[in-house]
Amino acid sequence: MSWHDRSGRIDHHGPEYVWAQIADDIRRDIESGALPAGSKLPGGPELAEIYGVAKATAARAITALREEGVVTVVLGRGTLVTRKG
């Protein structure tokens, strides 16, 4: 799966938090199988650039996915998909 510009997938002026929209977008890719278990997500700064958001916003999206058990953050290895949504 390629990680191209995804800033158009985010509604910066809508009622839903931007971090939640990013988490939803990534979760959809996991649920569809586009990001299977073991896939590595881009790092925080790169993810922020891909979605056109602040680093803290991208980090909050990853935190939400980690709390759900969808991804695991492994120091030195990155963020890995652990299960299908």
Task: Describe the overall structure.
- With 85 residues, the protein is α+β, with helices and mostly antiparallel strands.
- It has one domain: Arc Repressor Mutant, subunit A, CATH 1.10.10.
- The chain has three helices and three strands; from the N terminus they run H-E-H-H-E-E.
- The chain has helices at residues 18-32, 44-51, 55-68, and strands at residues 40-41, 71-74, 78-81.
- It has a three-stranded antiparallel beta sheet.
- Strand 2 (71-74) and strand 3 (78-81) form a beta hairpin.
- Helix 1 crosses helix 3 and helix 2 (44-51) packs across helix 3 (55-68).
- The two termini are 17 Å apart.
- The model has no long low-confidence stretch (mean pLDDT 93).
- GO terms for molecular function: DNA binding; DNA-binding transcription factor activity.
- InterPro entries: Bact_HTH_transcr_reg, Tscrpt_reg_HTH_GntR, WH-like_DNA-bd_sf, WH_DNA-bd_sf.
- Residues 16-84 form the HTH gntR-type domain.
* SS summary, helix count: 3
Strand neighbour order, sheet with most strands:
1-3-2
> What would you say the CATH architecture is?
Orthogonal Bundle
Percent helix range: 40-55%
Keywords: DNA-binding, Transcription, Transcription regulation
GO molecular function: DNA binding; DNA-binding transcription factor activity
Pfam family, one: GntR
Domain HTH gntR-type: 16-84
